[in-house]
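Quarterly update, task 2.4: phosphoric acid mono(formamide)ester-bound model.
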Amino acid sequence: MSKWVRNSLLGLEDLSEFEIMKIIETAESFALQEPKQSSEKSLLSGYRIINLFMEPSTRTRVAFEIAAKSLGADVISISGEASSLTKGESLKDTALNVKALGADAIVIRHSSPGSPLLLSRIVDLPIINAGDGAHEHPSQGLLDIFTLRQKLGEIKGKRITILGDILFSRVARSNLFGLTTLGAKVTLAGPSTLVPKEFSQMGARVTHNLEEALVDADAVMLLRIQHERQSAKHFPSLSEYSKMFGLNNRVLNYMKKEAVVLHPGPLNRGVEIESELADSNRALILNQVKNGIAVRMAILYLCTRSNNLS
Ligand code: CP
């Protein structure tokens, strides 16, 4: 396939290398210009984007809002607590009503895996997954790939370690799918209770040894512990987790000097990452946040205009 044809973005698992690179290269062209420049301001003029966020968010929601506005679209954000879902309305009826109100696309974050897929089958609108349970967070995976390319160049052959709570992480899954499609060598690391060996069937190396995870990595992506999705304890205490798997100045000695550190946020300083390291030049955390605007502009543009693109 050599043409963008999708009008929804549900995950990175099914995306081809061409499709991932189409989004990344479109985002790179947007990032070359200041978001406020006029040439982009009219691309989605007259479009209405609805952000339906049923879980808390700072980075993703705001970046989608800025991205839509930067392309000239109207954007309306609805949070779970402020919607009629609290009165018993179903997600299907919410989406159908949002469509009746003139939506041209829905960006959805929901705690249930598969909610964006369900909506895409019910509502004839572009659906963008902004995080569904522990399943996928494709725009995060894409902005991570974008940021890695900025620092490391071509992704093929690069060694990327994802460290932390892999089991409950939608960010880990989207990155694993996207990075392996582009030819990266991905290592998943953390406590055995949070990084089951079965993940190796998805094309990753799995290790529970921190030194082994860090020693040959070109980049290390840290994940926080997803307490909101865990019903049982997977390690004795946060301080023990931090001692065994936290990234601090002591374990930095295991890493290559030029290796970079990423984190999707929100950070738990002093748990998965030492505060000083989070603020250092090795950390690309705020670059990731900034790049999230251009990447989400590309997603909105490609998905809503796909029928008009040659
Ligand atoms: N990375 C991320 O999804 O952050 P938010 O929860 O703040 O959107």
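Highlight for this quarter: Strands lie at 48-53, 74-79, 105-110, 127-132, 159-163, 185-189, 205-207, 219-222, 260-262.
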